[in-house]
């Protein structure tokens, strides 16, 4: 379950490369692009520019380099040529990258053009909720502490937390132990120790937390049609706290210290 210093270095390199994929997407104007066009750009960038592998391709029979989850889609949205991004949309791109045998997993919700104030607030509060969870990570803390920090922030701001999907351990495999719930009670659950690596990836809904899976077997949507947002990072428990392996250059201030 824990990773050696050498393994952490390899995972940090995969994380650094994955962060650069989001920096690449940040420079693109998304309005008018289909989610399949975004998928193809990301696929090419990972393979051609980074000499890495888009790890979701072939995982559990999935065919694409990313999940694209727009508006009321909570997670696992499938990119398509017909799914065109429009002004006012929010869309989460969830990407996993493999380099030298080790994986990194991250996602970001993008705001396309001018979006409504309510949608912008959901995106901001979801991002804050992820960071609440990340800041709860340190040796001796529990997974319940992490989940409690996330859910408390969501509830204070009037949002529900999706309970059917969670973070997960990661390394050579996409999904390893432990499962990281985005709700919980302080002091409950697995105690964290140095060398553990897992994702924190809360999904917050404007309305009910209830979700349903579409007939394609992948796409998960809110039952009531409300908007949903998600952010994700891969993190490692360090001797004194937490290291965000997929940290993007624009996020260093979120840590409250300079990353190693």
Mean pLDDT comes to: 96
Distance between the termini: 22 Å
Q: Name the structural class.
A: alpha+beta
Low-confidence stretches: none
Q: Rounded to an integer, what's the Rg over CA atoms? A: 17 Å
Task: Tag the structure with descriptive keywords.
alpha+beta; 4-stranded antiparallel beta sheet; 5 helices
Report on this model:
The protein has 260 residues and is an alpha+beta fold. It is 28% helix and 25% strand. It contains 5 helices and 15 strands. Strand 14 and strand 15 form a beta hairpin. The longest helix is centred in the first third of the chain and has 22 residues, at 5-26.
Summarize the structure.
With 260 residues, the chain is of the alpha+beta class. It has helices at 5-26, 35-49, 117-135, 143-156, 252-255; strands at residues 53-54, 66-70, 73-75, 90-99, 102-111, 160-161, 167-169, 176-180, 197-200, 203-205, 211-213, 220-222, 228-230, 233-237, 242-244. Strands 1, 2, 4 and 5 form a 4-stranded antiparallel sheet that branches.
Write the layout of secondary structure elements.
Layout: H1 5-26, H2 35-49, E1 53-54, E2 66-70, E3 73-75, E4 90-99, E5 102-111, H3 117-135, H4 143-156, E6 160-161, E7 167-169, E8 176-180, E9 197-200, E10 203-205, E11 211-213, E12 220-222, E13 228-230, E14 233-237, E15 242-244, H5 252-255
Antiparallel strand pairs: 1-4, 2-4, 3-12, 4-5, 6-10, 7-8, 9-14, 10-13, 11-12, 14-15
Helix pairs in contact: 1-2, 3-4
